[in-house]
Amino acid sequence: MTGKPARTGGRWIERWDPEDEVFWKETGERTARRNLVYSVFSEHIGFSVWSLWSVMVLFMGPEYGVDPAGKFFLIATATFVGALVRVPYTFAVARFGGRNWTVCSALMLLAPTVAALVVMEPGTSYGTFLLVAALTGVGGGNFASSMTNINAFFPLRRKGWALGLNAGGGNIGVPVIQLAGLLVIGTAGAGHPRLLLAAYVPLIVVAAALAWLRMDNLAPVRNDTGAVREALRDRHTWIMAFLYTGTFGSFIGYGFAFGLVLQTQFGRTPLQAASLTFTGPLLGSLIRPVGGALADRFGGARITLATFVAMAAATGVVIAASLRESLPVFLGGFMALFLLSGLGNGSTYKMIPGIFQAKALARGMAGEEAAAYGRRLSGAAMGLIGAVGAVGGLGINLAFREAFATSGSGTAAFTAFLAFYAACCLVTWAVYLRRPVGPGPAPSAGERAEPQLTTV
Fold first, then answer.
1. Which residues contact 1 (CB under 8 A, 6 or more apart)?
2. Cβ distance 351 to 295 under 8 Å?
3. Beta-carbon neighbour count of residue 104 at 10 Å?
4. Which pLDDT tens digit goes with each residue over 310-319?
5. Is residue 4 part of a domain?
6. Residue-number span of the structural domain to which 287 is assigned
7. Half-sphere exposure of 393 (CA within 13 A, CB side)
8. Which residue, 47, 91, 332, 364, has most beta carbons within 10 Å?
9. What is the pLDDT of residues 149-208, one digit of tens each?
């Protein structure tokens, strides 16, 4: 507690100590799990809205007058705005409360959804489409506030699982809206995008209502500008942002661009592209909690390094398939990239609280003092890391736009991605596996201590 006046009403919880095993077993776990469930649902809808234009471009036939480069830029615009708003969304949790901000951020999803419902027809200017695509960025912000909120609810030993489940359930919003788009195209045809948009309006309202009725605010979580400044100065914030760019940036960038790549490079129809588009993001979303759980067990850095090595290999497969114009091999390599990026998303996010916990132990802190320091710094860092990571999705979409504009193929873009994954491998090994950061405590009964960065 900080000595500030207690907040009352609006489902505020005044005492929260998840590292206290008695508190956790008696009341903490039940409350944390309930908040996790409704956080996942709200974040899920947010991701669907953020990825809306990865589906809308499949509805945009020749009558819309938008070429492939213009469509990639629409997607990139949504990605970019989503990355930017993640920073203020992170700090909104401490300012307004996790439950209160979840309600507010859910209701804000109505703006881009209703706007798209109004303008989605041939004859609308490209500038209007660009503005509406930018509005969908608010859906990307939901991830940052949701992860920061859930991070405060769970003890360190369960963060990998909880954050992985929260993020994975949210990430599934990408394939779900793509699958819904396939349903609309397959039944009503590519001329009826408004059916998809109309279906999401009541879902947004339901998400906000459930958050209002069932979630809680944690009073001990307060705005802490000192934590923000300290996280900004800490080199691990930016190193992890670089690594998260490789995992989440890949997931969201590929998820947004996959259908358009299939249409542009392999000549798939909207229906054919939509029938394949959702599978990759679905696999990546489902495996994210597995990445977090594996990181809890074996150490996030080890799982992250293995992931980047495998992503580099899968990218080599994709490059070979692109040069040979082999769609089956291309799809196999791309599916592997989605799976691996999802796995890496879970392991990298597990590393963040562990890193700051290890720094606390290295400074001589122990027990609740070290746990509080870890929660404080990791909560502040997550928004910054999530924002920079999402910019990786922008980079992927812009790389595809340039590659297709100059050569009509995505091969050059994939070659650049391969070089980036190699750099991520080197950084992960050099910083988090080559040597530990500091000493740690002995593990308690039944637990495996994670005092060093080699095990986070």
1. 14, 15, 219, 220
2. yes
3. 16
4. 999 999 999 9
5. no
6. 19-440+448-455
7. 32
8. 47
9. 998 899 888 887 888 889 888 989 999 999 999 899 989 988 999 999 999 999 999 999
